[in-house]
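Weekly puzzle thread! Below is a chain. First person to post its structure in token form gets bragging rights.
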Amino acid sequence: MTDVHNRYIPRTALCVIGLIAVSTACLLSSLHAAPSPAIRAAMARKRAEKQKNLPSRLPEAVRDQAAGAPFDVAPLDTSVAGREAVAKAATTIDEMLQHEWSQAEVAPRPRLDDEQFIRRAYLELGGRIPRLEEVKVFASQQRSSKRQDLVDKLLTSPDYVSHFYNFWADILRLKERPDKQTLVFEPYMSWVKQSIADNTPYDEWVFAMLTADGTLWDNPAVGYQLRDRGMPLPYIDNTVRVFLGVQIGCAQCHDHPFDRWTQKEFYELAALTSGTRDRQFGGGPKTPAMGMQMMGMQAGAANARGLFQELQEARKKRAVPVAAIQFLRLNNTAVNFKQASLKLPHDYQYDNGEPEDVVQPSVLWGTIPEEFTAADRRTQFAGWLTSHDNRQFARAIANRLWKKMMGVGVVEPVDEFQEGNIPILPELLEHLTDEIIRLDFDTREFIRIIAATDAWQSQAVVYDASGAEPYLFTAPSLKRMTAEQLWDSMLTLVAKNEWAFQRPTAEEIKDVAAVDMTTVSYDSFVKQWESFNEKYGRGYQKHIRQVAGYKDQVLVRASELPSPAPANHFLSQFGMGDRDSIQSSRQDATVPQVLTMLNGWTTHTMLERGSVIYDNVVDQKSADRAIETIFRSILARRPSLGEERIAQQELSSAETPAAGCGNLIWGLLNTREFMFIQ
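Winning reply:
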């Protein structure tokens, strides 16, 4: 661990500006003689006057303040007793850590000051930097509970939902078009987002995904099983990795070379879910409603086959696109479970079975809870995995959320729990496991407790994964913003309404996409397809851009943008995952990132009339106030005396005060202090 509090804060943003200005001046002087100062000043005044009279080019929906919250979020227990319970739980964690520090003779870290705290709280709980008004309000408060008040406010805000949706989207591989057959995945993505807003207990949430039956329209949770449709072995591998933090994928082909799992154990576990199907023309319904739905799909099967033939013929004549056939397939797709046997592979080589033997279903450890022993195998699997008695389920999510907040997991990587991978602090891990179980898998309350610890409220340190010293969690590790945090923070400086467009809900999609397969004719089907395509297909992007588009960007929260982002998009450049593999996001630095920050859309958009920071700076009556406004808007703090002096020099030497403010904004956005979470 290295203390970099003083090292990674830049001396001044204008050092970078100076270097760029010198390079630019040298280039210009090599081309032609520079105009005189008087001519430059006159040209600058003319440009400023022209800019002053121009209307804003930012979309109206982005410039106008939203009337209210974009959606509701489940409340917290903010009673005196509720807060005392949080404080007590946080103190217990701190005492455990302090004991470890004293044993290792490690000094505690300095506590975050209020300016540092508000920035971390907004970034780690809301996914963005705080707005100027939010910084001012927090600074003016004198209550001793102001930090807890802010944490509680953020945890019940749409910001929290958006930020943690991004977190789970990277883990669950959420994307609109996961495969060629699934034309639209938005109902499932909307369901994930709504589950976070509702603060659905984690065990219930996972159980619902693992056991969901029906169509995407009627039960969006089936999206989890459809994500690995037709791949029963990768499905079980991904599920165990995500929810148990154990990688058993190697055992698909052979006994695991580095862990205890055998190929036969892998197949025995996969046998529990191998009867999951995504075509629902038979099988045993679990409920009367499910039976009616299956009867309807069976009755519509012949009609669907006829439609398919007609669409195929129309496709050959180029009368309809292939997407229309995909639309039919999706309407004819539903998840259900019908018990089926699973055999060992034909080339099985071990002496505990023969090739193509039928395997007997079995869990990896423990037993199936008694309440699920009479249920179908898929439900048995879900009941075992999410059971309170299955400590690995609780251990895995506790470790994931600890890393989310502290930057480093007690077990690293978070999905490699194995016998040789010893936790950094085993007692801490077991205590966190006990906590998540005690909270009945209320993950938001778990995060609330971590945010209340002294450790989380301490100044960040650098963690060197290759270092010899163990990381003892004296503070969160220093980390760069994720792509989504960076995008949403930039958006905070531009948009008064960052929710000008929201991802469609499952109900909205169903109203347009659900087809009655028992009665639909070819003509009515094509008409409904065209309506769907206009709203959520080809016309979808056009609609988004009409509402919130500015040049090549759509100015809404990252959680609401189509995903994954195109390769040349800001989010992709800064490491947003491709959503094809689990947690594929990246934190590495690249040349395109540097070029985007130096000369990309960000600063130009912020200097557009009507942007948040433009309007805030224009309202200031003096250079000193303008400088303070810029610093507090971007870094959530006032400038030091040295920074203020250099900033004043920049503003006074620029062609116009507006140009000087633009330079200052540009410079601060390119500092490490802005890019990293202190």
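Puzzle host: Confirmed. Bonus trivia for everyone else. The CA atoms of residues 19 and 25 lie 10 Å apart.
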